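Entry:
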Amino acid sequence: MNFSRSLFPATVATCAVCLILGSLISIAAADDKAKTKQVEVKGITLSVPTSWKQEQPRSRLRLAQFRIPAADGDKEDAEVSIFSFGRSSVGDNVKRWIGQFGADGRKSKVTSGKAELGEYVMVEVSGTYNKPVGPPIAGKTEPTPNSRMFAVILEAKDKGVYYLKLTGPDKTVARQAETIRSSFGGEAAKEKNYELDD
């Protein structure tokens, strides 16, 4: 038996399958990339997935608001809110966001980077989120375990300071890590650890 000849048809078939799968993956990736929409938010343009459902902001302070469908296993949707109310202390904002999670079991990470729109600071916090309930003026919260937040301070060139906040169930929010960054052109690989002042 000629061993090399007997393997030839199988090798050709395997290569054909690899080529087909590679093409399908490329098409899927291109399709995912195409499923975005441009949203104008007070002078800047964000690129967000079409799966983010734009809603009427619940507060006059919000420039825009989006609903993100829950991932499999999560019971609630996540939410993105966008604000712009002038410059304020980066450190104070970061500490306030981290403080919205209970200290027990809380994990946080703070990084900084540069995007085409401008410099930014990214905060990621996970644990038990003290979720606001009822009217903001009431200041009531409800402890919500297995939650996650991505919050961004984006200092857009000649446009002002924008605050993006993504909160919700851990799994749903974790899947949006790169999406929230890419919405304004950020890249995790180019970020550096951001040191908070005591």
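The CA atoms of residues 51 and 68 lie 7 Å apart.
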